[in-house]
Structure formats: C-alpha cells, structure tokens
DNA sequence: TATTGTTATACTCTATAACTATA
DNA sequence: TATAGTTATAGAGTATAACAATA
C-alpha cells in the first residue's frame, strides 16, 4: 500500500481505468483495420451530411495538420471523400462515402455491443448511473480545459 | 434510418469522455517534457525499488519491443536506469534515478492537483462515488478483456 | 489581415517478427 | 525449449511551423 502518498491513490486508478478502457476499445477497432483516430472520424461523421475540417478537428481533438493525414488515409481506403464547400472557398467538407456509411452502420452498433460486454454484471440502473457519472465528468473536464487554455493564453509570452 | 441505432448513443459520449480526459491529462504531462507513456512509466515506478521489463509492460500495457524504446528515451533523459537482475541473467530491472525520484515526487502530486481542478464542483462524496464507479468500471473492463483474449494480464491490486 | 487547409519536418508510439542470451 | 529483452521495420499519430488560397 502507498501510505506515503498524501493524495488519494484512487486517482491513479482513474488514469489506469481510462487507459485500460481505451486499450479494450482499440482491440475491437483494430479488427476493422482502422486506428482509433480513424474510427473516431467515422463515428463522428456517421449520420451527418458532412463536416468541415475545422469542426471535425474540434470534435475529435485532432489538430489540422494531423487531420489532413488521417483523412487522406481514410480517403485512400474509400471510406470518406472531400467536397469543396459551396459557401467558403477555403473550406473542405468531409463526408462518408457509401462504403463509409456501410461501415458505420454495420460497425457502430457492433462496437457498442463490444463495449456492452463490459457491463455483464451491471443492471440497467447501474449503466444509467455510469453514463450520467461520465457525462458529468466530461463536462467537468471541458470546463477545466477551458480554464486551462485561458491561463495558457495569458502565459504565451513565457 | 433514425431507428437504426438500437443502442443508446450516450455510450458514444463515454468514448468522448475518455478521450477528453486523456487530452486534458496529456496537456499537463507535456509541460514536463514527457509523453503520456513516459509519464506512465514514471508514476508506475514511483515508490517502488524497481520493476523488470516484463512486469512493467504488463502494468502499463506497453509491449516489450515498444518498451525498450520508451525506457531508452527516459534513460537518455537521466530519469531511469537499467540494472541487471541478480536472480535472472535475462532480466533487467528498471529503476528511477535520483533525478527520476525528484521528478516523481514533485510532479505526481502536481499532476493530481491538476486533475483535481476538474472536480471544482464535486463534493467529497461525489468524488468518492466517481472513484468507486471508475474502479468498478476498470475491473469490468479487465474481466471483459480476459474473456476476449487468452493472454491474461495478471493484475496486481494496489 | 485573418482563416482554412496543405505541406514539411522531426519525433514518438505501435505492432510484428527475427534475434541474442540466458533459463 | 521457453523466456527476457533487444533490434529492425513499416506505418501511424503528434506538434509545430511555413505556406497558398481565400475571406
């Protein structure tokens, strides 16, 4: 036991929980011959008419330079396509192709089912509680991140 | 097509929560000039006398080939050192150097404090509930992972 | 001038397999 | 034969900055 630590060690487990979960989720995604960022793009585009690079990057937390490469690889796989924006000549819309839509509709429920195996011993109420807990956590992280970036903006001069 | 999703879309938020959290945690770790896997090694080695590659890989979910590179980079930074095992000629023990211990003792509490900013609006009971929820989730993921593949990772409780 | 997306660079992580040296 | 760790390889993501086209 780490009794020397003055901070709750359970928070170390929080980090480990996230890591373990991501590793588990990735093991399914890799069976689709996709990376986690690539699958993230697919499910973000799912059930939309297309999203431009700027918004897509904000939603997936992938910076623009990286996003160009990720989208190009998905394009090479025939899963997404670039379409010029009609309202802004600088902007490119990223859409799922028909193959991409097929993949999304086939694998997203499959992915959720894979995730659901985790919850064998959970009651429906347990799952609802977990989802509410995580949603609140997500909002709290976003709030903290906002405060952080404000501080970073203030510190940009070093 | 709107009824195509038979699974709660809230689980999509679960993925996003993990991602958002990791991104937030990474933003602090990067200020230490460390990557997330490197920091993971540091906090795993913290308050231990050293761990060999095999166990270290199991704890951090980094495969051996990758681990060699990660440890070498940390060695280049003077934060860890390799020590030959006295009982097994094949085995290398990885330890924090004095600089590594300093870093750990200075930054782990700092990291937890950074994480704690998320919980501004949480009561102590809320935090306890969240920790219990996540610990249960972690155990459930490990159980699902065990069922999924034959290569079981022996988890040591802390 | 500011913004959108691309290109270029250098680094790190990842998975995999072949390899060595011990056991 | 099996195991612990290294090396080699190819691919992918990351941050960062410079850049072109458009607003």
TrEMBL record, chains A, B:
User: Residues in domain HTH marR-type?
Assistant: 1-139
Task: Tell me which UniProt keywords the record has, alphabetically.
Answer: DNA-binding, Transcription, Transcription regulation
Q: Which GO terms describe its molecular function?
A: DNA binding; DNA-binding transcription factor activity
Record Gene3D superfamilies: Winged helix-like DNA-binding domain superfamily/Winged helix DNA-binding domain
* Transcription in keyword set: yes
Matches recorded under SUPFAM superfamilies: Winged helix' DNA-binding domain
Q: Which domain of life is it from?
A: Bacteria
Q: Keyword Cell division: yes or no? A: no
InterPro entries the record matches: HTH_MarR-typ, Tscrpt_reg_MarR-type_CS, WH-like_DNA-bd_sf, WH_DNA-bd_sf
| This protein's name | MarR family transcriptional regulator
- Organism whose genome encodes this protein: Candidatus Methylobacter titanis
